[in-house]
Fold this sequence. Notes:
Layout: H1 2-19, H2 24-31, E1 33-39, H3 47-66, E2 74-80, H4 86-99, E3 104-107, H5 111-124, E4 128-130, E5 143-145, H6 154-162, E6 171-177, H7 180-195, E7 203-208, H8 216-226, E8 232-237, H9 243-252, E9 262-264, H10 269-272, E10 284-287, H11 296-311, H12 324-343, H13 348-355, E11 359-361, E12 367-370, E13 377-378, E14 382-386, E15 392-397
Parallel strand pairs: 1-2, 1-3, 3-4, 4-5, 6-7, 6-8, 8-9, 9-10
Antiparallel strand pairs: 10-14, 11-12, 12-13, 14-15
Amino acid sequence: MLRRKFLKLLPLAAATLSLGLLVAPAAVQADETIKVGILHSLSGTMAISETALKETALMTIEQINAQGGVMGKKLEAVVVDPASNWPLFAEKARQLLSQDKVAVVFGCWTSVSRKSVLPVFKELNGLLFYPVQYEGEELEKNVFYTGAAPNQQAIPAVEYLMSEEGGAAQRFVLLGTDYVYPRTTNKILRAFLNAKNISDADIMEEYTPFGHGDYQTIIAKIKKFASEGKKTAVVSTINGDSNVPFYKELGNAGLKATDVPVVAFSVGEEELRGVDTKPLVGHLASWNYFMSLSNPANEGFSKLYKEWAVKNKLPGADKVVTNDPMEATYIGMHLWKQAVEKAQTTEVDKVIAAMAGQSMEGPSGFAIKMDEKNHHLHKPVFIGEVRADGQFNVVWKTPGPVRAAPWSPFIAGNDKKSDQPDQ
């Protein structure tokens, strides 16, 4: 019996040794792909926002591959789910870099998840593209920030609210989820408001945990605060699925934009899909992109995503939307491709050097450029009013792209910090 099995194996062994090609193609194929990590929460409280970024990354990889790949090699996505668990982000990042050997990672939404993975990317000299607005106060060699710094979102939004055009607000509610992004952004905004002669007595600051679902008490406090004589506005840094109950309660309480306007920094078209937006008409969001922008680049981007959604049978595929962090993901992936082809390698240090000054026409309708020094994009700023259909009408915009200031001038000591990451 053993002798017969051995004899049957001999021809296969001989063919393998003589031809070599029977085992070689797998190895060759591995060399012909470039692995790309996708690090987004596909479950838990942040899945409402991050799942669409995973889909955008996969769509962009397919687009790049259809156009010939990167240096003639196909991109291969490696998707992991850190499940809105901040320590798990670090574990998954280490897996992507050490085990899966990805050349680059696109991922994270919350600043706490980004802070969790930073030590891993620094230790292993990995490369992270971070696609969401954040609080600034950070400049890392291993990270490219394709979302907004505070001077590209938060500061212009509050300036708008204080203007005659924006309602001439004199009192402010700073309402956020309880973690680093809202608290640091609100520290910056409080200092900014103080510099504009808004006293601390005219600033109310409130925080709720991730996944918070009952906003009845907080909305009642906001109504009371707003009834005390001066025009009041709410600045919302609520993140994740808590936005759904917040906006539902806002509607239930009859708090209209004409009474107390809310400007949000983490609510876009995707988050509003789960909300009846009719009572929210006129409330605001500040971003660097809206789906409603009319230009050829945006029409192409929106069409591409709709076709992707239908082909891949995404939930509600016929009604999918695009938003700012999706655009930032799309831009980041294309700029990384350009940098790799300029450097002619995926070696991290050489790609970092090649990223300086990379640019493309973004779906915002503007030429979007990676700054030569500070790892942030030059981006336009738009303020939009919620429409009944969940889209936004742009009511204010900058004349062109704004250079990011990662170190806010409203934080003491920032004038002494370098606008360039340590190498």
